[in-house]
Amino acid sequence: MVKPLTQDEVDNKVDPSVSTQWDESTPVDEQFKEMYKIVDGLKGGLLTTIRPGIGPTSRAMAVAKRVGPDFLFLANNHSEKFKDLKNDKTAQVTFQNSSNMDWVSVSGEAVTISNDDPRIKQIYSKGVNAWFGDLGDGVHTGMPDDPRMTLIEVKANYITYWKSTSSLPGFIKEVGQASLTGKVADTGVNRRLTDKDIQKARETGL
Fold this sequence. Notes:
- By secondary structure, this protein is an alpha+beta fold.
- Helices cover about 30% and strands about 30% of the residues.
- It has helices at about 5-10, 15-20, 30-40, 80-85, 120-125, 170-180, 195-205; strands at about 45-50, 55-60, 65, 70-75, 90-95, 105-115, 150-165, 190-195.
- It starts with 6 loop residues before the first helix and ends with a helix.
């Protein structure tokens, strides 16, 4: 429901869209579980790396596996993202559900792991080879033992996300009313999970 500005907010010149930005009432465990539900339902997102001389560079990537707050990807080590990560380990994974406006942003550090990591065979699935191709030399086959097949693990250190609390028609109505009345639209909850929260989630297996 559209939130009106209070006189106190006006008198103190407090921006209500900022002062009430974060959901501080929901238990952290529940915040993780609801974030996992969003990303697991989407399967893929944008993996962003930092390219020298350019800045943030993104590409769509399917998530091979989520391990708690961290994400595993299978990628071709001949691609430019590996050059990016060699220079700067900073990475971001973002997800968005266009049907209800839910989104998740995972900031962290990416670790690239050689082809002999046993997890590659564990998370490899049919269809991955379509993105590698078979070069016909019996080595570069697009299968798990293809030397191009490399694991990228994004270890999260900060997560923000938005969870919609209204349907798409409700969202449109709420935003429209807020635009007409000058009040602040109330369409969902914005949450943040800090490095401390994330480390605890790893330790407890959340």
